[in-house]
């Protein structure tokens, strides 16, 4: 698994990317460099959190998805639908209508991604009672798992080796359809993803041998389709409390929100969302500055999945709507469809994932003596670099550039301030420094362009 | 390779700065995460001690492939009875410091537990020097 190339869903559209520093500055793992005028993502460093996509001013970073028509390669077309999808719709639209539209689009089965939450929660609680390193860290958010692997390798043993709902729901539902006598080759399971990291994990799941999902559909794509149809539908709104989405308890409905897990675990539990918050917190956990915490729910996005990069509606409204829907469910006192005992056992058996291995990307060299030499060089180079962290060199910070130089991925003359100093002492020809800048930012990048973003002819 | 950090007495918000920086360095040097953890925990305790008790301090970290030596030097009240200070639970921290969640009397014992050797010398009314050594090859 660790030898295998990691799948990443985030891609740079080289035609749209015009080369700026927004994504590079936001990337929490310093995975982005600007080369030849476009952002490039270092695959081993990327954790698919989507911060770059949120930061891009020209939508040049996108999430690769499967062709929607792929669903028609199957007779039984299952949509695994996270509850945040429905959470985006206002209360005027009831779940029934949304499901109806989704059926109309071609899905034969619509399954909440959180259908297996109650079984998972039970397994998590059982694991809590066994002798394990505390604080336990949930695998719910794949970006967090990857973050720990590359930046906090000392905490990999704290990761609770229980698969997140999406994986177990897909596995369980396939099994259920097969048990109903359906031909396995005719079952297609499609995950409607709220973010890049979930795609990356269903394509190359961490700690699992293969994926249980046949394809991935971006949530914004499907939301737009459904929203459009609902907007143009016959306006007589039916009053319908018939909640026909299967197997969902109020707990499961709120599982993907901040505190969705932490309020259902034992001991002292904390929920932290947003990747930079998580990094700061994990730093303290690693220093033993924070002790006596039993469970950590860590999510890469602000407001957890409601803040997923592929959601269309405002995340705070989505959270409010989901909480209201959960309250409503509670008032109705509907008993969620029970998963049969045999299937619960089946889900449980499949829940345990292999232990997560560290793959630190921070080391300057595998050999410590060489790494020390390299770090001494980084520190010497830092004596010269201005410490402005402007990113004009194509690296995220002066220190990042110094590291890139030592690792032979950049030169000192990439720094535009170093160029001035070198020109002043006649060590660099001004024409040459323009060529260096063009190597980073692309040819003719500095020519007058009145059509660029913010310029007078933008949009013409 | 040497690293130096200044520590400001009384500023708990900044306590942990040196520990976090040294951690970043050690990760880049590919040091075993278990060793990193011990070094960082000991250093953090040392930093907190300076912040809680002294006026100001200085930390010097010396790293080579064999060992990591940390020297924490402060200008402060000094420790009158080092043996007593090494006892688990013994603390001279003020009520205010305790209120902030520090001062449980675990600082020096924790440092000793996490380092391979610990040396303290102290002059009452002047300050304290703590030297921690951690060996990398076991």
From TrEMBL, chain A:
Ranges where the 4Fe-4S domain occurs: 373-434
Top-rank lineage group of the source organism: Bacteria
Gene3D superfamilies for this protein: 3.30.70.20, Electron transport complex subunit B, putative Fe-S cluster, Fe-only Hydrogenase (Larger Subunit), Chain L, domain 3
Pfam families in the record: Fe_hyd_lg_C, Fer4_9, FeS
The protein's name in its UniProt record: 4Fe-4S binding protein
Residues making up the signal peptide according to the UniProt record: none
Keyword Iron listed: yes
Keywords: 4Fe-4S, Iron, Iron-sulfur, Metal-binding
4Fe-4S ferredoxin-type domain boundaries: 8-36, 37-66
InterPro entries hit by this protein: 4Fe-4S_dom (IPR007202), 4Fe4S_Fe-S-bd (IPR017896), 4Fe4S_Fe_S_CS (IPR017900), 4Fe4S_Ferredoxin_RnfB (IPR050395), Fe_hydrogenase (IPR009016), Fe_hydrogenase_lsu_C (IPR004108)
Automatic annotation (TrEMBL), chain B:
Membrane-spanning ranges: none
Family annotation (InterPro entries): HATPase_C_sf, HATPase_dom
Listed name of the protein: Anti-sigma regulatory factor
Entries under SUPFAM superfamilies matching the protein: ATPase domain of HSP90 chaperone/DNA topoisomerase II/histidine kinase
Natural source organism: Carboxylicivirga linearis
Pfam families: HATPase_c_2
Domain Histidine kinase/HSP90-like ATPase: 31-138
